[in-house]
Automatic annotation (TrEMBL):
Belongs to the short-chain dehydrogenases/reductases (SDR) family. Keywords: Oxidoreductase. The keyword Oxidoreductase applies. GO terms for molecular function: oxidoreductase activity. This is SDR family oxidoreductase. One of its GO terms (biological process) is bile acid metabolic process. CDD domains: BKR_like_SDR_like.
Length: 263
């Protein structure tokens, strides 16, 4: 299937590694011009080179951007619009907020999670929508978590703000659908990323067991019998971000190998 991504301009947030980088790879494979961003210039340089070498697509660019900084976000999209004149695809993505239950997080943690995991997505959407409306085409994919369907113990910040993201995405999708702008939320389950490894390490320390036991028990709960590969996640996001997706909007999808029992 031709996804119609050739020559589209795609911006992928937090894309120097993990799910963001995997998504950038898939968009690049489909011929899109991809702008990667993250907080580390060194990591971005390496990620951009990896994407170029893996896909053979030389239209790969990068720009440093801290998603918690309004100024950085404005600078990023000013760079993109001045260089390309438009934005077709926005992949919103950030690292997860601090882990812990209610007693483990402070007011400062709540504010930081709000800035990083909800307000940042609102700011990036605000930056791209004028261009998408003008060209009567746009795709916004908000990467969230499986906690939007089933809360995860010990992740109260993520459970709270990921749910808020779904409400934002659904409302925005209804407001801009007539402009051929599709807005969807995609929640990863247990994908083999640094974030999952970090949470496994925390669980192992709390339980006093080897981290390998945590991973083995975790995989046993997944009907597919394994963690997902980041590129499997990226392929689904690439479809949602493409012209091939012309009618699916306002949805909250979970990519989890069948783990969740919630309807």
């Amino acid at each position: 299937m031709d996804l119609g991504l050739a020559e589209k301009i795609a911006v992928v947030m937090a894309s120097s590694k993990g799910l963001g980088k995997a998504t950038a790879l898939e968009l690049a494979r489909e011929g899109a011009t991809v702008v990667l961003s993250s907080r580390s210039e060194e990591a971005l340089k390496q990620a951009a080179e990896d994407v170029k070498q893996t896909t053979g697509n030389d239209n790969i660019h990068f720009r440093v951007c801290d998603m918690s900084s309004e100024q950085d976000i404005q600078s990023l999209f000013q760079f993109v619009t001045e260089k390309f004149g438009r934005i077709d695809v926005l992949i919103n993505n950030t690292g997860g907020p601090k882990s812990g239950g209610f007693d483990a997080v402070s007011d400062a943690d709540w504010y930081a999670a709000f800035d990083r995991n909800l307000l940042s997505y609102i700011r990036t959407a605000r930056a791209v929508l004028p261009y998408m409306k003008k060209q009567q085409f746009g795709r916004i994919i908000n990467v969230s978590s499986s906690s939007t369907k089933e809360v995860i113990d010990g992740l109260i910040l993520s459970n709270t703000f990921r749910a808020g993201m779904v409400g934002f995405s659904k409302t925005l999708a209804r407001e801009v659908a007539a402009d051929n702008i599709m807005v969807n939320t995609v929640g990863p389950g247990r994908i083999a990323t640094d974030r999952v490894a970090e949470l496994n390490e925390i669980a192992a320390q709390k339980q006093g067991v080897p981290v390998e036991d945590i991973a083995k028990n975790s995989e046993a709960q997944i009907p597919s019998g394994r963690y997902g590969d980041p590129e499997e996640f990226g392929r689904i996001v690439a479809f949602l971000a493409s012209s091939a997706n012309s009618y699916l909007t306002g949805q909250s999808l979970v990519i989890d190998g069948g783990l969740l029992k919630a309807l």
